[in-house]
Amino acid sequence: MTTPLATNAFTDILEGRRSIRKYDANVAIPRSEMLEMLDEAAKAPSSVNMQPWRFLIVESKEGRATLKPLIRFNTRQNATSSAMIVIFGDMQCYENADRIYAGATKRGLMSSLMAKTKTAAIVPIYRKYSRQKMNDVVKIDSSLFAMQFMLVARSHGYDTNPIGGSRRIASRRHSGWMRAGMCRS
Asked: What Rg, from alpha-carbon coordinates, does the chain have?
């Protein structure tokens, strides 16, 4: 964390964002504020609003120990940050179309007819995508969420550092974390 922002002007947030290599280990972001920032970041745009990001908040020593060998060049950030946010991409995000569009209908953003029409049109197309094409869509959308999170965190007075992922994280941990209810979407 750096000095809290004196302004929330977007240009100041954008130009003031830096990738931090070592954090003040004594700073702890309250869980409620972390969830608030993640909820704000989840307003990021995504292809046909499928919101394919899933995330895991890693705060415990045990969780950090699990991450350590998977992020070998970024262990200082893992050791000193208030939390590590691990972002996953959901390759079957279209299975949530009914829930996503029902939520949009409930908030008055679209009619129920439009929600049904969109679901009927989009889900079959996504199901036919090749693994590579779906991976591309999910990677772009999850990256938008990640960037939005970094800007939201900056607007709250915190600095961040993007760390590239690892297939090992997804293949070894993601399915277990999802089953344990540790990932949020």
From this structure: 18
Q: Please report the pLDDT score of residue 57 as a whole number.
A: 93
Contacts of 64 by beta carbon, 8 Å cutoff, 6+ apart = 58, 78, 79, 84
Task: For residue range 117-139, list pLDDT tens digits in order.
Answer: 999 999 999 999 999 999 999 99
- DSSP secondary structure letters along 105-165: HHTTSS-HHHHHHHHHHHHHHHHHS-HHHHHHHHHHHHHHHHHHHHHHHHHTT--B-----
Using alpha carbons, select from 42, 37, 54 the residue that is nearest to residue 152. Answer: 37
Cα separation, 82 vs 66, whole angstroms: 16
Six-digit token pair at 75?
């262990």
d(CA 80, CA 83): 8
Of 38, 47, 56, 44, nearest to 136 (Cα)?
Answer: 47
For position 173, what pLDDT does the model report? Answer: 46
